[in-house]
Design goal:
The chain is built from 24 helices and 18 strands. The chain has 622 residues and is an alpha/beta fold. The radius of gyration is 28 Å and the shape is globular.
Length: 622
Amino acid sequence: MTTSPTLVSYREALSRLTVNPRDTEAMKICAAALLCAGQPQVASVYLQLLGDKAVEVPASWCLDTSNPEMLSTPEPQDSKSDLVRLANIAMLTRNGNVLEIGCGTGKLSAMLSAFGNEVYGVALQPIDADLARFRFYELGLTCGHFRASTLHELSCLPDSDSSFDFVVLVDLLQKIPNPEDVLREAARVVKPGGLVIISVPNAYCKPLPDQVRLFTRHSLFDLVSRTMDGSFAWIDTENPISLSAAIQVDKATATYNSPDPNLYLTPWPVPEIEKPLVSIIVPTYNRAHLLPRSIESLLAQTYRPIEIIVVDDGSTDNTREVVEPYLNRIQYVGQENSGCPTARNTGILRSKGKYILFFDDDDISLPRLLEVEVRQLESSGAAFCHGSAVVVDDDFRISRVHVARNVSRNDLLEYEFLVGNVFFGGTGLISRAALDKVGLYDTRLIRAQDYDMWMRLLARFEAVSVDYLGQIYFFHQGQRGSADDRFSASNILNKTREYEKIIFRKLYNEIPLEAVFPDIEKYGSPIVRIEALLRRAQSLNMRGLEDLAKRDIEVAGRLAEGLRLALSPKAQAAIDYLTREVPKWPSPQAALSACRALKKVVDAGMDEFAAYGNASEFTAGN
């Protein structure tokens, strides 16, 4: 594209695309703006739609990097408290039309969509509208509709009266000079009895640079009371950084208008994929009071086709009775009580799907879990996929948001082996072909059977993660385990450690050290192998397997003889840990032997440079 007198702004180009999604010149302008702003991935969607039509970035845009149209709005930090705040807001919405005013780049919009909502976002910068669209495009979703606006336009929204079930304003009111007008517009476009949800920074925390006003509980309540009628309730009250509230709006009219999609950019078309059968296996034991909630959430999946197999592991309550109404839509299998892994194996043998999801009988699946994750597996060819989850107690209070880690298979295996399980089982979609190769669940593991399965899969196959909420995970106070091994919630950690001993003793013999630490083969240096041995010894010792840890330490000591070592910070941390913990072993003889081997490694250490192989390159990379 060449610069011409007819060139319009990025914002104007988006307005033209709202009216005519096939406007070629407007698409060229948007692609050029995104390339100039350093967003080639987002620009590539426009370029695909344009085909072979050339795009040239206007020189004026290249020079003016401070152009506000190309600067994105800062989003809430991924801190634990901010993630909990956003999740609390998203959980107030369900299966409705949501208007998010000031949507930024779509982080909260994606959370809102996870709860089955159709999301309409108003971005204050044109680039934010495209970044939000791209977030949904990457997830394979077409339920996000966005448009670019300005602060002064928020006082008179083009949407019709009573168009939305929910209106959300997060980190917006403190930035605008006329919050009363915006709140009145929010009350106008929300349906009778709908929710307006607000969140602003707390005035008692450090003000942000773009704030034009501060809010306290009193001033926010006063503002809302002056501008809309309805019942007011504080939410996320334990967050000291923000003030969040929900207002159920009272309106005289009972009419309800559907949102007008013509006011928003058309969602980018996502590539078609095959839609294979997914088998969902739900083991259950004496959870008749919770099981229907889980079944209902699975039946509400937006993805089809699915088969749901409930495996009753010898329940003594009225489980059979509560599943009766669902038998025309699910399969029910009864068996003698044998524990969760045996029930899962029963489900596997009954299943017919290309992909398998194992779901707990006390959790809630969010509606678009399979819609997003099947696409990830079909497009990537990976063996399994995992997503994010909200962790709540029995009263739906959120304790944390688990974010799926976006790392490679080898990184995941190393992390799982050394630190602990990073997957939430209810978001783990697994290829049936991969399950057939690694085998069924280990029936000895009444606890931590997922952990064992993930590592067996990671040792052989690729995994993909998707930062998208797929599950509400309940950490409740009820009893767990099989009939022969029941334990309380307070004893979960001890019981998990007990079963982890079985897992890690097995994996020590079955998964080679090189599979956990691929840098051993990459660098070919004994120093790298020594580091891997020490770090695995640390992991084994943490799980009470002193005999296996002793073996690794002794091998590391023998390898260190005659070498000069430049150890990475990770290896040094492992040495510090082992030096502190090994003397506490119950067997003085084993502890003495391990300490002697550790001393050989320490004595071979150097502060700066390695004299052997390319270990300095490895150290620099760590």
